[in-house]
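# step 3/5: fold
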Amino acid sequence: MQPAARIQTFKPRRGRYSTQMLQGLREGSARVTMDALTAPAVLFDGAPVILEIGFGLGEATLAQAQAHPDHGILAIDVHTPGVGRLLAELDAQGIANVRVVEGDALELLHERLPDTSLAGIRVFFPDPWPKTRHHKRRILVPSNLAMMARVLRPGGFLHFATDWQQYADEARATIAADARFRLLAPAAQPAIASAATRPRTKFEARGIAAGRSITDLVALRT
């Protein structure tokens, strides 16, 4: 029997390509393929690895890489122009502790990454799928959280941020129901996974401009 197909958690977007994006796609030195991810620490000479799911245009990725040079960042997104832009910026700024993958994060979580191979996972402002019939497409659902628990090492963190209150409430309940995670109060959040030190992204600014509140949830793998 064939395994059930995974539910798609993203809307494919391509958009227009700037000269910078095209150059990044052609020449970006930080680009890696899915096949290279069976031992992610090797990509960073043994440094702790943080997975960033859906980095958009890469603003937060660049800021976090500069703020935490002792960690490697594995950044994955399906949005090709954003991949090109991040690759170009990494080379332009000489940032060496990021690797970029174009692809589906669920394939990475379910099929590629080894157990306990990550020090952290960041999911900032994923598609909220606001319609009730689409909630099953949200990335932070119990089956995907189980895969995150599998690839996180003990003490590793999950940092989730959204500007949709209903999604925030649902995500909080999902994390709280999983005994493999412990939600942290804001005062207990480490600097590497804290709303206080997370850079503002374009998607966050849009939510604020629309009058929506921002929720950050940080949990540790027990």
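# step 4/5: annotate
Residues 59 and 202 are 8 Å apart (CA to CA).
# step 5/5: archive (pending)
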